[in-house]
Amino acid sequence: MPTVSLQVNGKSVTREVEGRTLLVQLLREHLGLTGTHVGCDTSQCGACVVHVDGCSVKSCTMLAVQAEGTEVTTIEGLAAADGTLHPMQAAFREHHGLQCGYCTPGMVMSAVDLAQTHGHLDEKTVREGLEGNICRCTGYHNIVKAVLAGAEAMRAGVPKAAE
Ligand code: FES
Ligand code: FES
Known about the structure:
single chain; alpha+beta; five-stranded mixed sheet; 32% helix; globular; binds FE2/S2 (inorganic) cluster
Protein backbone atom coordinates (compact mmCIF):
# COMPACT_ATOMS: atom_id res chain seq x y z
CA MET A 1 0.00 0.00 0.00
CA PRO A 2 1.20 3.56 -0.61
CA THR A 3 2.39 5.68 2.28
CA VAL A 4 1.33 9.27 2.80
CA SER A 5 3.19 11.77 4.98
CA LEU A 6 1.75 15.15 5.86
CA GLN A 7 1.23 17.64 8.67
CA VAL A 8 -2.14 17.53 10.36
CA ASN A 9 -2.91 20.27 12.85
CA GLY A 10 0.80 20.92 13.20
CA LYS A 11 1.83 17.31 13.77
CA SER A 12 3.72 15.13 11.33
CA VAL A 13 1.87 11.95 10.44
CA THR A 14 2.68 9.06 8.16
CA ARG A 15 0.17 6.35 7.35
CA GLU A 16 -0.19 3.49 4.92
CA VAL A 17 -3.36 3.95 2.93
CA GLU A 18 -5.01 2.32 -0.03
CA GLY A 19 -4.73 4.30 -3.22
CA ARG A 20 -8.49 4.89 -3.14
CA THR A 21 -8.54 6.21 0.45
CA LEU A 22 -10.05 9.69 0.60
CA LEU A 23 -8.51 12.48 2.65
CA VAL A 24 -11.63 12.54 4.83
CA GLN A 25 -11.19 8.82 5.53
CA LEU A 26 -7.57 9.34 6.48
CA LEU A 27 -8.61 12.09 8.90
CA ARG A 28 -11.58 10.34 10.45
CA GLU A 29 -10.71 6.66 10.29
CA HIS A 30 -6.93 6.61 10.50
CA LEU A 31 -6.33 9.67 12.69
CA GLY A 32 -9.58 9.75 14.69
CA LEU A 33 -10.32 13.36 13.76
CA THR A 34 -14.06 12.93 13.60
CA GLY A 35 -14.80 16.64 13.80
CA THR A 36 -14.64 16.60 10.02
CA HIS A 37 -18.04 15.29 8.97
CA VAL A 38 -19.30 13.40 5.95
CA GLY A 39 -22.71 14.50 4.79
CA CYS A 40 -22.91 13.41 1.18
CA ASP A 41 -19.59 11.91 0.09
CA THR A 42 -20.20 13.42 -3.33
CA SER A 43 -18.78 16.98 -3.10
CA GLN A 44 -22.10 18.67 -2.51
CA CYS A 45 -22.65 19.48 1.17
CA GLY A 46 -19.37 20.92 2.46
CA ALA A 47 -19.54 19.13 5.81
CA CYS A 48 -16.07 17.72 5.13
CA VAL A 49 -14.22 21.00 4.45
CA VAL A 50 -10.69 21.24 5.84
CA HIS A 51 -7.78 23.48 4.94
CA VAL A 52 -5.00 22.09 2.78
CA ASP A 53 -2.05 24.46 2.68
CA GLY A 54 -4.39 27.17 3.93
CA CYS A 55 -7.16 26.75 1.36
CA SER A 56 -10.53 25.17 2.00
CA VAL A 57 -10.98 21.80 0.35
CA LYS A 58 -13.81 19.31 0.42
CA SER A 59 -11.89 16.39 1.86
CA CYS A 60 -14.27 13.84 0.32
CA THR A 61 -13.10 14.98 -3.11
CA MET A 62 -9.38 14.49 -2.53
CA LEU A 63 -7.41 11.29 -2.25
CA ALA A 64 -5.28 10.92 0.84
CA VAL A 65 -2.21 10.34 -1.31
CA GLN A 66 -2.82 13.70 -3.00
CA ALA A 67 -2.22 15.33 0.39
CA GLU A 68 1.38 14.11 0.46
CA GLY A 69 3.63 16.85 1.82
CA THR A 70 0.80 19.26 2.60
CA GLU A 71 -0.27 20.98 5.80
CA VAL A 72 -3.82 20.10 6.71
CA THR A 73 -5.88 21.89 9.34
CA THR A 74 -9.11 20.41 10.61
CA ILE A 75 -11.69 21.89 12.94
CA GLU A 76 -9.79 20.27 15.83
CA GLY A 77 -6.77 22.41 14.94
CA LEU A 78 -8.56 25.74 14.94
CA ALA A 79 -8.90 26.52 18.64
CA ALA A 80 -5.85 27.52 20.65
CA ALA A 81 -4.02 24.89 22.67
CA ASP A 82 -5.64 26.21 25.85
CA GLY A 83 -9.09 25.70 24.37
CA THR A 84 -9.73 29.35 23.46
CA LEU A 85 -12.01 29.28 20.47
CA HIS A 86 -10.93 30.72 17.15
CA PRO A 87 -12.82 34.00 16.57
CA MET A 88 -14.91 32.34 13.88
CA GLN A 89 -15.89 29.54 16.24
CA ALA A 90 -16.69 32.08 18.94
CA ALA A 91 -18.84 34.05 16.49
CA PHE A 92 -20.84 30.96 15.52
CA ARG A 93 -21.55 30.36 19.19
CA GLU A 94 -22.35 33.99 19.92
CA HIS A 95 -24.66 34.45 16.95
CA HIS A 96 -26.37 31.05 17.14
CA GLY A 97 -24.94 30.01 13.79
CA LEU A 98 -25.72 26.37 14.40
CA GLN A 99 -28.47 24.07 15.48
CA CYS A 100 -27.67 20.35 15.10
CA GLY A 101 -24.06 21.23 14.35
CA TYR A 102 -23.56 18.71 11.58
CA CYS A 103 -22.61 21.29 8.96
CA THR A 104 -20.72 23.48 11.41
CA PRO A 105 -17.14 22.24 11.10
CA GLY A 106 -17.27 22.64 7.34
CA MET A 107 -19.04 25.99 7.61
CA VAL A 108 -16.42 27.31 10.03
CA MET A 109 -13.49 26.08 7.96
CA SER A 110 -14.97 27.56 4.78
CA ALA A 111 -15.74 30.81 6.61
CA VAL A 112 -12.19 31.17 7.90
CA ASP A 113 -10.83 30.72 4.38
CA LEU A 114 -13.36 33.22 3.07
CA ALA A 115 -12.35 35.76 5.71
CA GLN A 116 -8.66 35.21 5.02
CA THR A 117 -8.99 35.65 1.26
CA HIS A 118 -11.15 38.80 1.33
CA GLY A 119 -10.09 42.07 2.82
CA HIS A 120 -13.65 42.86 3.79
CA LEU A 121 -16.67 40.58 3.78
CA ASP A 122 -20.20 41.68 3.03
CA GLU A 123 -23.38 39.65 3.18
CA LYS A 124 -23.45 38.92 -0.55
CA THR A 125 -19.87 37.69 -0.54
CA VAL A 126 -20.58 35.44 2.44
CA ARG A 127 -23.70 33.96 0.86
CA GLU A 128 -21.89 33.32 -2.41
CA GLY A 129 -18.79 32.05 -0.66
CA LEU A 130 -20.76 29.51 1.31
CA GLU A 131 -22.73 28.20 -1.67
CA GLY A 132 -20.90 24.91 -1.38
CA ASN A 133 -21.89 24.43 2.26
CA ILE A 134 -25.38 23.15 2.93
CA CYS A 135 -27.22 23.51 6.24
CA ARG A 136 -30.51 21.72 6.75
CA CYS A 137 -31.34 23.50 10.02
CA THR A 138 -30.63 27.17 10.34
CA GLY A 139 -32.01 28.93 7.30
CA TYR A 140 -28.54 30.45 6.96
CA HIS A 141 -29.35 33.90 8.42
CA ASN A 142 -27.48 33.36 11.66
CA ILE A 143 -24.64 31.64 9.86
CA VAL A 144 -24.18 34.72 7.70
CA LYS A 145 -24.29 36.97 10.77
CA ALA A 146 -21.75 34.74 12.50
CA VAL A 147 -19.38 34.75 9.53
CA LEU A 148 -19.53 38.54 9.23
CA ALA A 149 -18.83 38.92 12.95
CA GLY A 150 -16.12 36.26 12.93
CA ALA A 151 -14.40 37.86 9.97
CA GLU A 152 -14.50 41.23 11.71
CA ALA A 153 -13.00 39.72 14.84
CA MET A 154 -10.25 38.13 12.76
CA ARG A 155 -9.54 41.47 11.12
CA ALA A 156 -9.44 43.13 14.52
CA GLY A 157 -6.71 40.70 15.51
CA VAL A 158 -8.47 38.91 18.32
CA PRO A 159 -6.01 36.24 19.47
CA LYS A 160 -6.62 33.05 17.57
CA ALA A 161 -5.33 29.57 17.14
CA ALA A 162 -2.15 28.69 15.37
CA GLU A 163 -3.15 27.94 11.84
S1 FES B 1 -19.13 15.02 2.53
FE1 FES B 1 -17.78 16.15 1.29
S2 FES B 1 -19.02 17.61 0.31
FE2 FES B 1 -20.44 16.40 1.45
S1 FES C 1 -26.87 23.23 11.94
FE1 FES C 1 -27.82 21.35 11.35
S2 FES C 1 -27.13 21.06 9.32
FE2 FES C 1 -26.45 23.04 9.83
